[in-house]
Design goal:
Shape of chain B: elongated
CATH topology of the largest domain in chain A: Arp2/3 complex 21 kDa subunit ARPC3
Helix content of chain A: 55-70%
Radius of gyration of chain A: 40 Å
Largest sheet of chain A: 5 strands, antiparallel
Structural class of chain A: alpha+beta
Order of helices and strands of chain A: HHEEHHHHHHEEHEEEHHEHEEHEEHEE
Radius of gyration of chain B: 20 Å
Structural class of chain B: alpha/beta
Number of helices of chain B: 7
CATH topology of the largest domain in chain B: Rossmann fold
Strand order of the largest sheet of chain B: 7-6-10-9-8-12-11
Distance between the termini of chain B: 54 Å
Largest sheet of chain B: 7 strands, antiparallel
Number of domains of chain A: 3
Strand content of chain B: 25-35%
Oligomer: heterodimer
């Protein structure tokens, strides 16, 4: 009985060690699911130490030691596999062997065996995909019991005289099996609890990060401006729970939300030296409120005394900062510190994306202008030539045509503004068609049929005209027979459709080369209105080409981005 | 007076050029054609001294028209176009001049001066002409362009010249002589040109003439006069 009591005392030492260990930085590797080689070395050293400690804490019984040396190897084996378990067992066993005495050899051998048994359990659990069970104390309990029993058997098998061995085992078997198993199980339970705590904290952290990511997504689509940043600051303040959040560009405060907003005013130039440092040196600046104190440069009564300033960067250029403040009576949480950095990273990528989108739009616009420049000279000179001729016979008509030419070019200049109503676009097409009809006379007939309800639809400029121009330039003008172009504006379910059909059927073979204008129309509609809209072509060679432009029924809604 | 033909698919462009040419007082307009085929016909019938030729026209472009004109009838050529992207090609085609629409009367006067100079001289050397790749044919009420590679043979009779392809027989305005000189088709008979690639075999008759068996199964006569040359061409 006194032996059991003593062993329980030593077990208590293990529990304390386990507790301290779980709070130490060396515990970190066990919170992850995979052990790196260097983690295994740490574990080896630590558990070898535990094993050796078990030997030192052992109580001499009949020239042998009743001890808890098995805890180290078994735990190491269960957590790190047979190699680690055996290695720890070998070290612990070698150490025990060096003490000599009765059972020196059998104890050395059995310690190694025990580590190996722990490792086998580990292997079994991993093979059966029960990795989560590795840290279950019950499994440790049973494994250690079995391992200790095996040790008893080894003592009986190897130590002579046999009667002494039997006597020894009779004394130490129960207390050693019970205390080692309980100690190992307690040890494991502490490790498991600590792991769970890490998991829960990580889960809470990611939930918060994801909430912020989700809520801020798209807010910076138009870049950093004073329009959307207050909303952004509000979301960050709400989700992190810090006292205040500010967003600045390189010069001034764009948004400030939370405590101190009475004197931290939007539009003010940046006054904090910390922020300047963050911008100039492109690094995170942190004043924790203890070692480094943030002092408001605006108002002495400001309740804020700690701050995290994270630069927002695009292509390594700082374009602003995001600042998280905490007030005097609250500690700046480490979690908020990493959240703050994470948010800044997230927003930086959003800004990058918005810059990319802008550049893409610029590219489309540039292509558009290029096509306009390519298209016009033929049309212009042929139109002028036609009008010059008509001037001889019908000056009134020539005058009328010149007005159409000027209308056409005026609309062309306006095109770059981005959005126009279908009515305006059709007016331009009408001017264009009138001029072309004068050019081709009876070789060209244009029929228009509109759904009046759709006439106020807001559509990207340069949508209709290039398609009509294609039909005439690449279709009708290549026909000897009379050409007909039908322009039909109609509604199909929840889509507004504009069909431009000619009876030439010349677009079948080369939809790419000459259809450059059309490609751009398609690209632009998809970019502005979504990929389910755009243009499609049907063609029967020498019979007809029909281009259908599909647009959302509510037209183009948000037009601010097209000005950029 | 210089006899001129105007070829342009746009009626107002034709009218304007006619008015401008009439103003010069040196030109007589012998015809105005809205497309290339009409132009080939008018060149045959009117034998103009000069053609004012638009480049961008339906089905057969101005350049193509030029390649289809019988060499003996070849008039001076002035290209008229709205945009100068073809200027270089126009001069490669040995055009006499190149006018931009809208045409200025001062500029046109210079062209007429050039014309006067050239036309008083003895007949100039022939234009090196481009090959014909597509033969314009009349099929019912439309123009069909038959690629030379698709042609099996071409035959002529009193009714005119017919291009024979797998799709059928098509009437063409072009003469056998023009086709012989500007396409890879080979003369095998006074009234026949054949596409060597479509020949299956040549059957020799006792009278030193023979006939050609085409891959399609059709037969074409070979006259004694051309048989020898054909054999040489085929490497006998």
């Amino acid at each position: 009985m006194p032996l059991l009591l003593d062993l329980i005392k030593t077990m208590a030492v293990f529990v304390v060690v386990a507790y301290l260990y779980s709070k130490s930085p060396w515990f970190k590797p066990l919170t992850t699911d995979r052990l790196r080689p260097q983690d295994k070395i740490y574990l080896y050293l630590f558990f070898s130490a535990i094993s050796i400690m078990g030997t030192y804490l052992g109580l001499p019984v009949q020239d042998a030691l009743a001890n808890t040396r098995a805890i180290g190897p078994v735990l190491a084996g269960i957590m790190g596999g047979p190699l680690l378990g055996t290695a720890v067992g070998f070290t612990g066993g070698l150490h025990r062997y060096s003490f000599g005495g009765f059972t020196a050899f059998s104890c050395g051998l059995s310690t190694m065996t025990e580590g190996f048994i722990g490792g086998l359990v580990h292997l079994y659990l991993v093979r059966k995909h029960h990795e989560d069970q590795v840290f279950r104390p019950v499994i440790t309990l049973v494994t250690t019991m079995v391992a200790e029993m095996v040790q008893m058997l080894i003592i009986l098998a190897t130590e002579r005289p046999f009667t002494d061995a039997v006597a020894l085992v009779q004394v130490i078997a129960f207390p050693m099996i019970a205390t080692s198993a309980c100690g190992a199980a307690l040890f494991m339970s502490i490790i498991r609890d600590q792991r769970n705590m890490y998991d829960r904290a990580a889960a809470a952290f990611s939930t918060r990060a994801f909430t912020i990511a989700e809520r801020t997504l798209g807010l910076l689509a138009k870049g950093l401006d004073s329009e959307t940043t207050p909303e952004l600051a509000r979301i960050i303040q709400e989700d992190t729970g810090v006292a205040a959040v500010a967003i600045t560009d390189r010069e001034k405060v764009l948004a400030f939300v939370g405590e101190g907003s009475d004197h931290h005013q939007i539009g003010h130039p940046i006054s904090s030296q910390l922020t300047w440092t963050a911008i100039e040196e492109n690094r995170v600046v942190f004043a924790d409120g203890v070692n480094r104190i943030y002092t408001c440069s605006l108002d002495r009564a400001c309740p804020l005394n700690s701050v995290l300033v994270v630069p927002l960067t695009v292509d390594n250029d700082v374009i602003g900062t995001i600042k998280l403040y905490e007030s005097r009576n609250k500690r700046f949480l480490n979690m908020n510190r990493s959240l703050g950095k994470g948010i800044a990273g997230l927003l930086s990528s959003q800004l990058m994306l918005s810059r990319y989108e802008k550049q893409k739009n610029l590219l489309v616009m540039a292509e558009l202008k290029l096509v306009q420049a390519q298209v016009n000279p033929h049309f212009l000179f042929n139109a002028l030539n036609t009008i010059i001729s008509i001037l001889r016979t019908d000056p009134e008509r020539a005058r009328d045509l010149l007005i159409h030419v000027s209308n056409f070019f005026r609309m062309n200049l306006k095109r770059t503004n981005g959005i126009a109503t279908l009515r305006e676009e059709l007016a331009q097409v009408e001017s264009y068609v009138t001029i072309e009809k004068a050019r081709f006379e009876d070789r060209l007939t244009v029929n228009m049929d509109f759904d009046e309800d759709l006439m106020d639809l807001r559509i990207p400029t340069f949508t209709l005209q290039p398609i009509v121009e294609n039909a005439i330039k690449h279709g009708i003008s290549n026909m000897l027979e009379p050409g007909v172009v039908n322009i039909h504006v109609y509604r199909a379910d929840d889509t507004a459709c504009i069909a431009i059909e000619d009876n030439a059927g010349k677009l079948c073979e080369k939809p790419d080369g000459d259809g450059l204008g059309m490609q751009i129309v398609d690209k632009r509609i998809k970019y502005l209105m979504g990929s389910s809209f755009g243009t499609s072509v049907e063609c029967v060679p020498d019979v007809m080409t029909r281009v259908t432009i599909r647009l959302p029924l509510n037209g183009f809604v948000n037009d601010s981005s097209t000005h950029s | 007076m210089i006899r001129a033909l105007i070829v342009d698919d746009e009626v107002h462009a034709r009218d304007e050029l006619e008015a401008l040419l009439a103003d010069t007082g040196a030109i007589e307009i012998v015809g105005k054609c809205p497309d290339g085929l009409a132009a080939l016909r008018a060149i045959k019938s009117e034998r103009p001294d000069v053609i004012f030729l638009d480049i961008q026209m339906p089905v057969i472009s101005g350049f193509e028209v030029l390649s289809m004109i019988d060499e003996e009838l070849m008039p001076a050529v002035v290209f008229v176009t709205a945009y100068d992207e073809y200027a270089l090609k126009a001069f490669e085609e040995n055009a006499l001049d190149y006018l931009l629409k809208p045409v200025e009367s001062e500029r046109l006067a210079r062209t007429v001066q050039k014309l006067k100079k050239i036309l008083t001289r003895p007949p100039q050397t022939a234009y090196p002409l481009a090959d014909i790749t597509r033969i314009p044919c009349i099929a019912t009420n439309r123009i069909k362009l038959v690629a030379v590679s698709q042609v099996e043979f071409v035959r002529s009779d009193v009714a005119g010249v017919y291009v024979v392809s797998a799709d059928g027989e098509f009437f063409t305005e072009l003469t056998l002589k023009v086709l012989e000189s500007r396409t890879p088709l080979v003369r095998c008979h006074r009234q026949f040109l054949i596409n060597i690639d479509r020949v299956d075999s040549i059957v020799l008759h006792e009278n030193q003439a023979g006939h050609i068996q085409m891959k399609s199964g059709k037969t074409v006569p070979v006259s004694r006069r051309y048989l020898k040359k054909m054999k040489e061409d085929l490497g006998f």
